[in-house]
Amino acid sequence: SSTMSLSEAEVQSARGAWEKIYVDAEDNGTAVLVRMFTEHPDTKSYFTHFKGMDSAEEMKQSDQVRGHGKKVFGAINNMVQHLDNSEAFLGIVTPLGKKHATQLKIDPKNFRIICDIILQLMEEKFGGDCKASFEKVTNEICTHLNNIYKEEGW
């Protein structure tokens, strides 16, 4: 029984859309974080080593920002590979959500911010169809993360 609301066709087109942006995982992951830190400077406060960085250029060059960008894209890639297997999908999302809720204490609204920036980047680089086919995936991810946060008492 699947908790996923995506059809097989939607899963396929979402994977196709994701592949385009995942080819350059480090650069695109970095671009997403830099945009988040620039447009939502409060998100930087969670990352002690990014706090002092004000220029986008400086962030882009930072090994820590690049490393985390790559990590974020790797985690999403893992989820995308398991969109048709809700047990495996939840096996990835659940520990990630728990860690961000309990250890890192990241406000869950930041997941939506990151997802929206990924969708923006997809649209800019590959057009509206690409964005549209990935939108349901970001909604799935954010919904599941929010549920885990609720279970953790947020």
From TrEMBL:
GO terms for molecular function: heme binding; iron ion binding; oxygen binding; oxygen carrier activity; superoxide dismutase activity. Keywords: Heme, Iron, Metal-binding, Oxygen transport, Transport. The keyword Iron applies. It holds the Pfam family Globin. Residues 5-150 form the Globin domain. InterPro entries: Globin, Globin-like_sf, Globin/Proto, Globin_lamprey/hagfish. The keyword Transport applies. It catalyses: H2O2 + AH2 = A + 2 H2O; Fe(II)-heme b-[protein] + nitric oxide + O2 = Fe(III)-heme b-[protein] + nitrate; 2 superoxide + 2 H(+) = H2O2 + O2; Fe(III)-heme b-[protein] + nitric oxide + H2O = Fe(II)-heme b-[protein] + nitrite + 2 H(+). It comes from the Eukaryota. Its EC number is 1.15.1.1. Gene3D superfamilies: Globins. Belongs to the globin family. Involved in oxygen transport from the lung to the various peripheral tissues. This is superoxide dismutase. It comes from Mohoua ochrocephala.
